[in-house]
Description:
Layout: H1 5-15, H2 18-28, H3 31-38, H4 42-50, H5 52-58, H6 61-67, H7 70-84, H8 89-105, H9 109-115, H10 120-127
Helix pairs in contact: 1-7, 4-5, 8-9
Amino acid sequence: MFGSTQDTTSLSQIMQNPAVSQMMQSLLSNPQYMNQILGLNSQQSNMLGSNSQLREMMQNPEFISQLTSPETMQLAEAEKAQFSRDYSDNLALVRAYEAWKEAERDVAGYEYCWKNFLFAQSMKAIDAL
């Protein structure tokens, strides 16, 4: 979720290259490759194993295409900026959590996560600490 602005700006510039974008789309639309990527992280693998709807989304080529588009990445970066400002990544995460907690009180936690490119499961895991 969080990374330096320079990293995300560079990534956005790289993704605007048509050759790179086409290569990424080709790789990400391959179900075997996606299963391999999704299985690398045990926490992510467990999350996908327990949520068939999430697994289907992560294997949907249209969803992956939208998720990896330069426009979506720029939108995600703009949303991230509201938390980070000039703060460290740790403080940005605390700010994101606090805002999620407020939305959760209003029974809007999932919508908040979706709008701000956050994972609800991650916010719940932090809340359980």
